[in-house]
Amino acid sequence: MSDVDFVPRHETEHPRRAFLTGAAAAGAAALLVGSGRAAFAAPEKQPDHTHSWAYGGVMQAATTCVGEGHVCLNHCLNSFQAGDNSLIACGVAVQETIAACNALAQLAASNSRHTKAFAEACGAVCSDCEKECRKHAAKHDACGKCADACQGLVGEVKKAA
After folding, report:
1. Could you give the 3-state DSSP secondary structure of residue 5?
2. Quick check: 10 pLDDT over 60?
3. Regarding the domain delimited by 56-160, which CATH topology (the fold level of the hierarchy) does it fall under?
4. Class of residue 128 by CB neighbours under 10 A (exposed 0-12, middle 13-18, buried 19+)
5. CA–CA distance, 123 with 107 (Å, rounded to integer)
6. Alpha helices (H) along the chain
């Protein structure tokens, strides 16, 4: 047997394997496209996706409080690491606000029957947080923004009452 006649087995299997893999992928794609037309076709009548949120403003204000609260709390933690403990009461108030507003946002988003009662309690938490953050607002921008967010939530809670 000469060297010309000998072809290693792995050299003949690789192109065949590549061809079969490609053919299988093309066949699967054709099946998906064909079946996808029926599955993704627009129904004759679209369902109504509009929702009336009785507490939409409360939900948005609570979400804003959570976001600004995280920024403020991070600022407080950075101050603690630098040895400045003047923001301890602020950090505690903000931590409570984040917890309360997370829960309120979830209740408001789902139009829970408990939203109104919980919003009043959350408003009290945010009122305390606003008072604490206002003490530092002139020196710390994060505290001022958190206080403004808390003030906004208290206003939305009063509107929803």
Report:
1. coil
2. no
3. Substrate Binding Domain Of Dnak; Chain:A; Domain 2 (1.20.1270)
4. middle
5. 14
6. 9-39, 56-81, 88-109, 115-134, 141-160
Distances (CA, A) of 119 to 65, 67, 123, 129: 13, 18, 6, 15
Domain boundaries defined on the chain? 56-160
Whole-model pTM: value is: 0.68
Question: Are 58 and 153 within 8 A, CB to CB?
Answer: yes
**Token output for 86:** 């003047």
Q: Which two tokens stand for residue 22?
A: 């490609």
Q: Indicate if the pLDDT at residue 5 is higher than 70.
A: no
Q: What is the pLDDT of residues 34-88, one digit of tens each?
A: 555 555 555 667 666 555 678 899 999 999 999 999 999 999 999 999 999 999 9
Tokens 């804003």 locate to: 64
User: Residue type for 116, please?
Assistant: K
